[in-house]
Amino acid sequence: MITLYPWLLPYYQQRIDAFQQGYGHHALLFQAEQGLGVEQLLSALGHWLMCQQPQHQQPCQQCHHCHLFQAHTHPDIYTLAPIENKDIGVDQVREVNEKINQHAQQGGNKLIYVQGVSRLTEAAANAMLKTLEEPRPNTYFLLSAEASAPVMPTIYSRCQTQKLAIPSQESAVTWLQQQTTQAIGDIQTALRISYGRPLHALALLEQGLLEKRREFLRQFWLFYRKRSPLELLPFFDKPLLFQQLDWLLAFLSDALKARLQIHTHWLCQDLAAGVQQLSQQQNAQALLRATEIIQKVRTDLSQINAVNQELILLDGLTQLITDVFEG
Ligand SMILES: [Zn+2]
Questions:
Q1: Does residue 125 lie within any of the structural domains?
Q2: Distance from the alpha carbon of residue 63 to the mean position of ligand 1, in angstroms
């Protein structure tokens, strides 16, 4: 049996149905947020396409192609992905183009995975376009792109595109309960602050990050009380920096919601007392300004050379004091 996260199963079934009924598309593009496991969907579809004698919706697991697939040694499968986080270059695409113009070494289908379509350079995308436009027989493309990343319209229009939905909260919680023994309250919190993405939530739970989040926000609260940026600074943890800023943003925007009498869809329900307290002490304009400042810090940090990290943080925290808390 193919292993698939439950929220991916309907997409798999739909696509396989289409192939079985003879109208499967040669280039399938899936747009998905990180933390939904889109790679697993691509792999499962690829396995079915390579199998010589699939049993209904399942690859047979017996044929030579299945064995090669499972050993990751199938010579007619190619993967285009960023190498060492560099964009996918035109040479990589040309190399694959050359190979798919030859006969399949195993006499079956040929398969090209493209992981991160928006990471193709313009030249690479153009080189791929021709193969996408004039599909060769028995050649399939399975592509993925991050939901928020732009895909070149020329590529987009040659593919059958589908956006993966965030699973329902109920089904995500059920799945998480099967993966971890942690308390239901923590599972729900992890899922909320992961914006519903189950794999992201599981990673938070397994790495003990909920505890780190509470501690970090506790330190933020002390900073708020004492107005001392230099005391909060050491609690920013380089590998967790963006998560920490996201936790802080969630806390601040919940306080803004509370101030505006919006009591649903809070991300920090587990810290409701702190959220309420901040919302009573700061007006809506101040809370909005606070989220803007932290959002700007986050953007700057993602764009600017890491050498300045501490300065950017310090500047943002100082602005919180001057513009918001004492503004
Ligand atoms: Zn097979």
A1: yes
A2: 4
Q: From ligand 1's centre to the CA of 318, what distance in Å?
A: 62
Question: What's the pLDDT at 84?
Answer: 86
Distance in Å, CA 144 to ligand 1 centroid: 24
- What is the CATH classification number for the domain harbouring 112? 3.40.50.300
Structure tokens belonging to residue 100 = 């798919």
The Å distance, Cα 106 to ligand 1 centre, comes to 13
Q: How many domains does the structure of the chain reveal?
A: 3
Over range 205-209, report the average pLDDT: 95
Ligand 1 centroid to Cα of residue 27, in Å, is 21
**What's the 69 CA to ligand 1 centre distance in angstroms?**
9
Q: Are residues 143 and 15 located together in one domain of the fold?
A: yes
Q: In the structure, what pLDDT confidence band is assigned to residue 249 with cuts at 50, 70 and 90?
A: very high
User: Could you tell me the distance, in angstroms and rounded to a whole number, from the CA of residue 65 to the centre of ligand 1?
Assistant: 6
Distance of CA 22 from the midpoint of ligand 1 (Å):
19
Distance CA 293, CA 128 (A): 41
Burial of 306 (0-12, 13-18, 19+ CB in 10 A): exposed
Same domain, 184 and 213: no
- Mean of pLDDT values over 192-203: 95
CA of 48 to the centre of ligand 1 (A): 8
Q: Can you say how many angstroms the Cα of residue 183 is from the centroid of all Cα atoms in its chain?
A: 25
Considering the domain architecture, whether residues 196 and 65 belong to the same structural domain is answered as no
Query: How does pLDDT run across 282-324, given as a tens digit for each residue?
Result: 999 999 999 999 999 999 998 876 668 889 999 999 999 999 9
Distance 72 CA to ligand 1 centre (A): 14
Supply the DSSP string of 124-150, one letter for each residue. Answer: HHHHHHHHHHSPPTTEEEEEEEETTS-
Nearest Cα neighbor of 255 from 232, 223, 288, 217 is 288
pLDDT at 105: 81
